[in-house]
Fold:
Amino acid sequence: MYPFFKRLLDLIIAILAFLILLPFMLPIVIILLLTGEHYVFYYQKRVGYKNRLFNIMKFATMLKNSPNIGTGSVTVRNDPRLLPLGKFLRITKINELPQILNVLKGEMSLVGPRPLMSVSFEMYDLSIQKQIYNAKPGITGIGSVIFRDEEALVSETKMDKHEFYRTVIMPYKGALEIWYNQNRSLRVDFWIIFLTAWAIINPKTQLQFKVFKGLPKRNLIQL
Structure:
């Protein structure tokens, strides 16, 4: 019953959110058309349900050629590849709003493991790769809540940024996503939606560790 009610909830909330947010998103569309490189949406291949690739939609926040310049697939705080409006869109997570259309198409859910680029997905151990997308990828998830300010972590590390991402961030993300797969329920989904909103207001919140007592320990990595 959970998959049926989850999909029903996804559709209801996604339709309502699209209608409510449309007047707010239209000015963003206009600003992006008039600034930067004059493109609005960013489409990128991501790993999705059952490890099948799909095109994720986001508001454009970076230069079109950003994967081939600078730090590549790793984004840092105040990244020079960001468009004029890009930093604001990324900090507020507004750049993720077009993924509502991915939800309506059935490619994503509101809550689930974040869909990764293949280059990041392949950093996971094979055991994690086989499990992580047994759930549809989500606009938000427990990894999104805990790594609310991932770009700041990457920016501040003294390690090589790619090595830090591969050896420090990814193992913990994998543990978190496996936890979600093992504990997913409507109750967990509702809490993650609430915690996502709360983390925008209070980025340093630790409430998630009080709500979910069984989360993988943060001492798995040094954050």
Q: What stands out?
A: The mean pLDDT is 90. Residues 18 and 43 are 19 Å apart (CA to CA). Residues 2-220 form one domain. The first strand starts at residue 41 and ends at 47.
